[in-house]
């Protein structure tokens, strides 16, 4: 099993974040983490086992004082947001023989500290008119998520269909600016494809999908359906190092609704372009592990913040079931 294949699963599972990214969704929150569909987007672990994936994420973005957003029931302007968050993911591969493909099941737990600053709060949750700057920050546990992935391989071609479900039981701070939880059910469905040639070292990947959102019952806000598309090209230079470029495009295809959607349909879009690199190594002398760094800059934003993100993925197996004749299982 190659280290590249072990490290690819992070792009499939770590896809949720309240990143302070004020897009057209309520509170600037999207279940799908833009930038996660990078190299190896459709490659799943090729062996039964349990795998650990951990992503440390940083995002910083802002919008000018003439642009309004709705966060935590507050209509605000002059928004500046920074977030540091960690996403711990465990993936279980129970079978590699499901209708000719591999089944992956997993769970994600986000923990982080959003820091939000606004130059003016125009309307508070109770309808009062306010005109002053506000700041809010917190270290909180977000909504847990569950994921299921079906991956199929033929030669150098990999295809993966995935779904991600947000479970609204995290620490939601009512009427506050800084949140990591969504306080709404949401589901993302995506399809990814990867061409991976181990001889030449080239990886060409793409991923696209839709996120369907439920209603936040506290704010009576229902976020519209969101579309995301990503692409990446990477070159593996040797067994240890690889690097490449990646980009994404996001657009909300249906408007926000409900009594809490006081800015109307508020559909938004954004694009991003950046670089990534990976370092493959052996941990404890026997466990293949991968570190991958992404750095992405956003542009062409509408009804959302425009900023940059940096995130570091770490992946390794916790336990694997080796095929017959390949040695013992476990690490």
Please give a quick description of this structure:
The protein is mostly beta strands and 331 residues long. It is built from 2 helices and 17 strands.
Keywords, separated by commas or semicolons:
331 residues; twelve-stranded antiparallel β-barrel; mainly beta; 57% strand; Lipocalin
Give the arrangement of secondary structure elements.
Elements: H1 3-7, H2 10-13, E1 49-62, E2 68-71, E3 74-98, E4 101-123, E5 134-137, E6 140-141, E7 145-154, E8 157-166, E9 186-197, E10 202-213, E11 215-216, E12 221-222, E13 226-236, E14 241-252, E15 269-283, E16 287-302, E17 306-320
Characterization of this structure:
The protein is built from two helices and 17 strands. It has helices spanning 3-7, 10-13; strands spanning 49-62, 68-71, 74-98, 101-123, 134-137, 140-141, 145-154, 157-166, 186-197, 202-213, 215-216, 221-222, 226-236, 241-252, 269-283, 287-302, 306-320. A twelve-stranded antiparallel beta barrel has the order 1-3-4-7-8-9-10-13-14-15-16-17. Strand 2 (68-71) and strand 3 (74-98) form a beta hairpin. The radius of gyration is 20 Å and the shape is elongated. The model is unreliable at 7-23 (pLDDT under 50).
